[in-house]
Structure formats: C-alpha cells, structure tokens
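To whoever is on call:

I kicked off a structure prediction for a single chain this morning and the downstream step that reads the tokens threw a length-mismatch warning. I double-checked the sequence; it's 219 residues and nothing unusual in it as far as I can see. Pasting both halves so you can look.
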Amino acid sequence: MIALIRYTFATVLHTQRHLAPLLLFMGLMGVLTVNGSGPLPPAYASSAGALFVCSTWLTVALTGLDAPPQRAIVVVASGGRSLTVLLAVICTALLSCLVLMVVGLLFPLWTGDHAVTATDLLLGVEAQLTCALTGIAIGVLCSRPVFRRRGHALVAALTLVTAALFAKGVPPVNRLFTLMATTPDAAELLAPAGVMLAASAAILAAFTAVAHVVAVRRE
C-alpha cells in the first residue's frame, strides 16, 4: 500500500494534474474567505466548500492517471488486487486533502477578522473532513474505471457535486452548510457535524464498493 501511494504521488506530481484543482481551491479560498469577519462557522463552511470541489476534481485526476493497459500492469504488480490500487488512490487523495485542510483552517484567520476558539477549530476540522470524504467519494464513483468516456464522467461528477451543494437539506454537505450558516455558536454544531462526518464516511465506503465492483467486472 505504501509503495502504491508513493507511486501515485510521484505520478501526479510528474504529470502536474494536481495543479488545476489546487489553483481552484486557492481561488475559491481567496474569493470566499478574504476580509471576512464575525463568527467562524460561516467562514469554515466556505473553506470546506472549496475543499469539497477540489477533492472531487483531484480524485478524478488521480484515478485517471493510468491508461487501462498501465492500470492493468499496476494491478498485477500489486498482486492482482484492484481494490488495493483503488484504496491507495483514496489514501493519496485523503493525504492531499489533509494538507489543504491546514490552509482551510488558517487562511480565514490570516485574511479575516475572527475570534477563534478551540471549538471553532474542531468544527472546522469536522466540516472539512466531511467535505473531503464526500468529494473523494464522488471522485471515486466518477472515475475512469467506472466511466470509460470522460464526458460521461464529467457530467456525472458535476451532477453529483451540484446536488450535494444545492439540494436543500440533503446530507451531508448541504445540510452541514445550512447549519453552519445559520448557527454562529460552534459548540452547538459539533454533534450535528459529527453525524454529517459519519454519513460522509459511509458514503465513501459505499461508493468505493460500487466502483470496485464495476471495475472488476470490466477488467
């Protein structure tokens, strides 16, 4: 697994496919959080939204690094376990998102005027983890092993991202953002945010299982 993660990191750095989602993340952070003031939950909802979009795009890029023949070689080299290869991609995306989470937590404090507490930071971690896991889940479901045509994968990803962001009251993303936008007290949001985090982890597990089944059948 460690070797596969190192291989995925090296490949994405060499191909520079991480640059587009990274630039998008920084652009959204600049637009949504610069010169903010007041309670932190709305600001952290904005940074979590930026991470959600970035994690989806980054995961799609990671799963499409290898052409089908190259992917087959990687699967054989890993002992014929395609699930291991998929999990390595997910771990790579999650590690990348953890780095971006630090930016998402500190950038609003640096560029805005907010009073910060440990509870605010904990809520920010929960919100960003929720969005990162959900974005990775969508990226996995819309990956090349599932959708052979990139146009179909793009349409599916845009549809799911739009639904997660704007479908009113739908957990975990829209529901979490609604709570953070309307409740300034971070202490009241910790428990609901924890529920949304658990829901995002369940979604990632379910989407990973579906992607693996589809990929195995096509291979």
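Update from on-call: the warning came from a stale cache, not from the record. Cleared it. Sanity check on the structure: The radius of gyration is 18 Å.
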